[in-house]
Amino acid sequence: MITIKTTINAPIEKVWQFWTLPEHITKWSFASPDWHSQYAENDLRVGGKFTTNMAAKDSSMSFDFEGEYTLVQQNEAIQYRIGDGRKVEITFKETPDGVEIIESFDPETQNPEEMQRAGWQAILDNFKKYVENN
Predict the structure, then answer these.
(1) pLDDT digits (tens, 9 = 90+) for 53-78
(2) Neighbours of 134 (CB within 10 A)
(3) Who has the most CB within 10 Å: 4, 55, 58, 84?
(4) Where is the Activator of Hsp90 ATPase homologue 1/2-like C-terminal domain (predicted)?
């Protein structure tokens, strides 16, 4: 598994809402400024499914990031399987410095692990910036 993390200076309730509500997901779920998220759907419950569209702003490429939840513990943890079967685990932990998010995911085999780590970390960094500035 590949693991990334960040600490967000915000209350856990805000972090959870911004992570899980579609109207917020579309504001941060992309890896670079030349991409954006056109829409998101989220049925946040075990067995529920989610879809987040990620697209290049120049319309040259887009894809749906989708999966199914296997664990949902409000303000604490989320686990899901991506459409290709890989597992993702996310924990939310209150600390004196804010909410620590630790995200671990099974790597895919097409791209180097360092590239995958950098892409997922960039999305997590976008999330931190979005939460702390809104």
Answers:
(1) 999 999 998 899 999 999 999 999 99
(2) 11
(3) 4
(4) 9-132
The single residue listed with the structure tokens 């989220």 is 42
CB 29, CB 128: distance < 8 Å: no
**Tokens 């030349």, residue located:** 34
Contacts of 37 (CB under 8 A, 6+ apart): 25, 26, 27, 28, 29, 30, 52, 53, 54, 55
CB within 8 Å of 42: residues ≥ 6 apart:
20, 21, 22, 25, 48, 50
pTM: 0.92
User: With contact defined as beta carbons under 8 Å apart, do 11 and 94 qualify?
Assistant: no
User: What are the Cα distances from residue 51, in Å, to 4, 48, 110?
Assistant: 21, 11, 21
CA 14 to chain centre: 15
Q: Nearest to residue 31, comparing CAs of 127, 103, 122, 133? A: 122
